[in-house]
Amino acid sequence: MTATEPRPHRDGEAWARPVDRLTTTATGAGTDTVTGKRVAGPIQGFGQMWQKTFSVRLEGVDKSPEQLVAHWKERFPTFWPKGATFYAPLAGIAPGEVALLEVPPLPGSPIKMSTGVMVIYADDQSFAFMTPEGHALSAWITFSGFRDGETTVAQVQALERTSDPFIELSYILGANRMNDRFWAQTLENLARSVGVITPDVRSEKICVDRRRQWRHVRNLRHSPAVNMAVATLTAPVRWLRRRGTRPT
Amino acid sequence: MTEGTRAEIRSTTRSDTSLMRIEGEITSGSEKPLMEAFAKAVDAGARTVILDFGALDYMNSGGIGLLVTLLVRAQRQNKRLMAIGLNEHYLQIFSLTRLDEAIGIHDTEAAAIAAAG
Predict the structure, then answer these.
(1) What is the mean pLDDT of residues B54-75?
(2) Cβ <8 Å between B92 and A15
(3) Could A18 and B68 be called an inter-chain contact, meaning their C-beta atoms sit closer than 8 Å?
(4) Structure ipTM
(5) Total tally of structural domains belonging to chain B
(6) Alpha carbon B37 to chain centroid distance?
(7) CA distance B2 to B111
(8) Dihedral sign for Cα atoms in the order A208, A209, A212, A217
(9) Residue A248, pLDDT score
(10) Chain B residue with minimal CA distance to A44?
């Protein structure tokens, strides 16, 4: 290295490169609703901004934070609660990769919502996802391992807003608590996988910004539910138009 | 490994604009120095705080989250945040996370002060 070359950053390899539109190598999901979309974080979201932190102490487990995070990355889909599916990209959880997801809108619902996440950051002690347009949440979610005394702790920290007014309403009516339960269950499953018999997940929720970002109300145009409703309501018109243009 | 975060406030040519020079790293553990420096700038009468990232050495995803929290705090108090000193690497991170849509980025302190109006 010469004196004129810039010093490489310690975080240089951990961050994804910016992309204009998402593409994915993940397969297996019924629908890919992510390709062609942009990422959208809490700055682009609509609802109140929440910082949610979930953690579990891995008492008696002989794993360093690095070993824990390696285990978490490798088996990430297996820790998700029943009914939700994570389709990992071919390169696994690595910076720039895009995964597909199928999650039930309500617990036990037979209907699945298709979406995805981009891995924006990954090092040996943490990794982070950012959601795409059309996802229920505009969020960054960081998964990490760290040492607290002699014990390794696994943590999920989300910084999130709901993406549009309908989802904000559902959050007020209970979806916020369901989302909390999702991450608590994920940490319970992770802890059990490394030998913790009765995991005790702690959580902390802070409303970082009570204001709703009405300038982002147009996020509704990406909403799968709205698009489905519009398609259903306009189906008769499209049918009549097709009949009108059919050759006699 | 951990270098810590240092955030120092200094005045600029405008009495309502302060410069916050950030050295070292920004992680989720940087909350205290960043928020204290921001409060000091506001107490000094700043309506705009220019974040100088010229001496930033490391930032992880927790650090980006902290910048958003700082942004929300600034907006709540009707203050503006601007950024200078971002090299190509950190410009890419601002672009990736779309933080550049909320924090004005400028090449120099003079350009940021001019934009502060």
Answers:
(1) 94
(2) yes
(3) no
(4) 0.90
(5) 1
(6) 10
(7) 33
(8) negative
(9) 55
(10) B98
Domain with residue A109: its CATH number is: 3.30.530.20
Distances (CA, A) of A174 to A54, A140, A178, B83, B108: 18, 21, 7, 38, 47
Are B93 and A12 inside 8 Å of each other by CB? no
> Does A159 sit within 8 Å of B60, measured CB to CB?
no
Higher pLDDT, B117 or A126: A126
CATH number, position B46: 3.30.750.24
Cα separation, A2 vs A222, in Å, equals 49
Q: Is residue A34 part of a domain?
A: no
The parent domain of residue B57 ranges over: 5-116
Tokens of A112: 């699945």
Bridging pattern class, strands A201-209 and A113-122: unpaired
Q: Looking at the domain assignment, is residue A35 inside a domain?
A: no
Q: Does residue B39 come out as left (phi exceeding 0), alpha (psi in the -120 to 50 range) or beta?
A: alpha
Q: Provide the mean pLDDT of chain A.
A: 90
Q: What's this model's pTM, rounded to 2 decimal places?
A: 0.89
Question: A89 is in which domain, residue-wise?
Answer: 49-245
A242, exposed or middle or buried, with CB in 10 Å at 0-12, 13-18, 19+? exposed
DSSP H or E stretch at residue A119? strand A113-122
Task: Flag whether pLDDT at B34 surpasses 70.
Answer: yes
Q: Write down the H helix ranges in chain A.
A: 65-74, 165-170, 176-193, 224-233, 235-245
What's A175's DSSP letter?
Answer: I
Q: For testing the chain A interface, which of B59, B97, B99, B101 should be mutated: the one with the most A CBs within 10 Å?
A: B97
pLDDT of B1 above 50: no
Compute the radius of gyration of chain B from its Cα atoms: 13
Under an 8 A CB cutoff, do A18 and B69 touch?
no
Q: A43 contacts in B (CB within 8 Å)?
A: 68, 71, 97-99, 101-102
Q: Could you tell me which residues of chain B have a Cβ less than 8 Å from any Cβ in chain A? A: 28, 57-62, 64-65, 68-69, 71-72, 75-76, 87, 89, 92-93, 95-99, 101-102
Contact B61 A128 (CB under 8 A): yes
Q: Give the total residue count for chain A.
A: 248
Residue type, A151: T
